[in-house]
């Protein structure tokens, strides 16, 4: 049966279709489980504009931190809730460095309070602008 293209799929229908498509495949990888301290230590000064960028390293660092952050805010089988706070790239860098310090001290209660739902959208926008400037 041909799908009705005038009727949008519900999120549940899209999820079911994706699950069916992905059965038996290893195409996708899990989100990183290790806190990306090295990526954050490179990315934070880059976000502030205090160091020159190395394009491949900058893209990889941002990708790694975004992937880890998404793993923290996207529950399996749940809804994605992104933050509505608007923060600057420098404020995002401050949050990332604070999170990194908590990780080093293994302060897991403080780690749970990291606002990934605010950080991830900022990094995605930054990465989009970075790629547009460098590749566009």
Strand content: under 5%
**Sheet having the most strands:** none
Poorly predicted runs: none
Return the domain count.
1
On the 0 to 100 scale, the average pLDDT is: 77
What's the gyration radius in Å? Answer: 18 Å
Kindly state the percentage of residues in helix: 55-70%
Q: Write the H/E string, N to C.
A: HHHHHH
Q: What class do helices, strands and sheet pairing give?
A: mainly alpha
Distance between the termini: 41 Å
| DSSP helical segment count | 6
Number of DSSP strand runs:
0
Q: Quick one: overall form? A: globular
Task: Describe this entry's structure for a reader.
With 136 residues, this protein is mostly helical. The protein is 62% helix and 0% strand. The protein is built from 6 helices and no strands. Helix 4 packs across helix 6. It is globular and about 50 Å long. 20% of the residues are buried.
């Amino acid at each position: 049966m041909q799908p009705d293209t005038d009727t949008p799929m519900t999120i549940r229908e899209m999820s079911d279709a994706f699950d069916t498509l992905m059965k038996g495949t290893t195409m996708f990888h899990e989100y990183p489980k290790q806190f990306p301290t090295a990526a954050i230590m490179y990315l934070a000064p880059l976000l502030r504009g205090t160091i020159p960028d190395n394009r491949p390293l900058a893209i990889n660092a941002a990708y790694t931190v975004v992937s880890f952050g998404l793993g923290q805010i996207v529950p399996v089988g749940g809804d994605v809730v992104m933050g509505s706070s608007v923060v600057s790239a420098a404020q995002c860098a401050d949050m990332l460095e604070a999170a990194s310090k908590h990780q080093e001290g293994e302060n897991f209660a403080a780690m749970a309070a990291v606002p990934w739902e605010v950080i991830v959208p900022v990094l995605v926008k930054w990465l989009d602008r970075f790629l547009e400037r460098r590749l566009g």
